[in-house]
Specification:
Helix content: 55-70%
Largest sheet: 3 strands, antiparallel
CATH topology: Arc Repressor Mutant, subunit A
Radius of gyration: 15 Å
Number of domains: 1
Structural class: alpha+beta
Strand order of the largest sheet: 1-3-2
Shape: elongated
Distance between the termini: 10 Å
CATH architecture: Orthogonal Bundle
Order of helices and strands: HHEHHEEH
CATH class: Mainly Alpha
Number of strands: 3
Length: 102
């Protein structure tokens, strides 16, 4: 049963950096800047940008680019489909953990 459940895990979220990005963004209603994400996750800008691109390409996050005090700022938010997919991912993880004890 555990093996069957693990096959259903969304591989996009099942990576440390992307799991971290989604966890931080889900907790933020206003979005989180690129710099803040890099700092919180202790990732290089290049590494973070690769993971953000994967999440964006799959429709899980969206970006907003603007200038603040003449400096570019990119902010990310979770999309509705991203929130739903991540919640399903977490429910599946919970099922896996519960099924191990049976």
């Amino acid at each position: 049963m555990v093996v069957d459940l693990t096959k259903k895990l969304d591989k996009i979220f099942h990576e440390r950096a992307r799991l971290g990005v989604m966890s931080i963004l889900i907790a933020s209603a206003e979005g989180v800047s690129f710099s803040e994400l890099a700092k919180k996750l202790e990732l290089t800008r290049g590494n973070l940008s690769v993971h953000i691109r994967v999440l964006e390409d799959n429709g899980y996050v969206e970006s907003k680019k603007e200038f603040v005090d003449r400096k570019p700022r990119t902010t990310f938010r979770v999309t509705k489909s991203g929130r739903k997919a991540f919640e399903e991912y977490l429910k599946l993880l919970e099922q896996i953990v519960k099924s191990v004890g049976k």
